[in-house]
Amino acid sequence: MRSVFSRVLMAAVVAVGVQSLALAAAPAPKIPRLPDGKPDLNGIWQALNTANYDLEPHAARAALAMVPGQFVPVPAPQVVALGAVGSVPGGLGVVEGGSIPYKPEALAQKKENQKNWLTSDPEIKCYLPGVPRATYMPYPFQIVQSKDYTFIAYEYAGAVRNIYMKDPGPPPADSWMGQSAGKWEGDTLVIEATGFNGSPWLDRAGNYTTDKHKVTERYTLRGQDHIWYEATIENPDLYTRPWKISMPLYRRVEPDAQLGQFKCVEFVEELMYGEYRKKPTPAADKPAAE
C-alpha cells in the first residue's frame, strides 16, 4: 500500500515539475508594439481597486467621517444621510509589505488628517490629484504615446501630464501634478515625477505629501489589455525608507471607450463660496425665510 502511495506521490511531483518547466519555457505574451519596437501603451486605462479610499489594507466601514457613538463610532452628522452610499468598501491594500513606513510625527499628522477628512482632503474641493493618486482614482485615464512623446490625460478634473522623454532639467515651479521625465528600461516605461507643491493627498485616509515628494513609476504592458503599474514613493520628511505600491491597470475595451468630462470645479462652488453669495442658499436643515 505504501509503495502504491509513493508511486502516486512521485507521479504528482513529476507532473507539477513538468508543468512548471512548461510555464517557464512558455513564450512571453504578445503585446502590441509601435513601429520602433517599444510597447504600445496607447489607450484608455483604469484601476479597479479601493486604493483611493485607503492605500493600506482596511475593513469596510459605515463612512469616512466617523464620530464617537453611544456604543461604537457612527457616521458624522454631515454624511449620515448618505447611508450606504457614503460607506467605505474594504480592500486588501496595494502597499508592498502592508503598511506605509511613516516617521512617528508624520504618522500622527496622517491620523489627524484622517480625523478631519471631510474638511481637509483636497479631492473634496476638486483640487488636482497629484501622482500617483491620479492613477487609481475611480476614473479612467488615457495614454497618448508616439516614438518621441508621451502624454497622459485624466478624466478627473481634466488633469494632464506631459511626460518629457528627454531630461527637461529641474522643475521651473512646484505644482499639484509635478514634472514628469520618462525613459524606457527594456519594455518598461519608467517615469520620475518631482516638483510637487506638497498639497496632494495619496488617498481619502489622510496619507499625505510634502514638497519633498518623489515618485518613480513603472508601466509594464503584461498583455493586450493590462498594464502592471508600480510606484516607488520617497520623502525624507515623512518616511523612514522608500516604499512601493503596485496594481494592474485594465484597458477599457468598449468600442466607444473615451474619456468623459468630470470638471468638478463647478460642482464645489457652493461648498467653497456659497456663503459669500449676496443671498446665501439656505442650509438643507433650515427652511427658507418667508
Q: How far apart, in Å, are the first and last alpha carbons?
A: 93 Å
- The helix content, as a percent range, equals 10-25%
Structural class: alpha+beta
Low-confidence parts: none
* E-strand count: 11
Name the beta content range.
Answer: 15-25%
Mean of pLDDT = 90
Q: Specify the biggest β-sheet.
A: 9 strands, mixed, barrel
Rg calc: 23 Å
Order of helices and strands: HEEEHHHEEEEEEEEH
Strand order of the largest sheet: 1-4-5-6-7-8-9-10-11
What is the overall number of helices? 5
The coarse silhouette is globular
Task: Describe the structure in your own words.
About 15% of the residues lie in helices and about 20% in strands. The chain has about 290 residues and is an alpha+beta fold. The strands form 2 sheets. It has a 9-stranded mixed beta barrel with strand order 1-4-5-6-7-8-9-10-11. Strands 2-3 form a two-stranded antiparallel sheet. The longest helix has 24 residues, at about 1-25.
Keyword list:
290 residues; alpha+beta
Helix-strand layout with pairing:
Elements: H1 2-25, E1 43-47, E2 66-67, E3 74-75, H2 104-115, H3 117-120, H4 133-136, E4 141-145, E5 150-154, E6 160-164, E7 179-185, E8 188-194, E9 214-221, E10 226-234, E11 243-251, H5 269-273
Parallel strand pairs: 6-7
Antiparallel strand pairs: 1-4, 1-11, 2-3, 4-5, 5-6, 7-8, 8-9, 9-10, 10-11
Compose a concise summary of this entry.
This protein has 5 helices and 11 strands; from the N terminus they run αβββαααββββββββα. The protein is α+β, with helices and mostly antiparallel strands and 290 residues long.
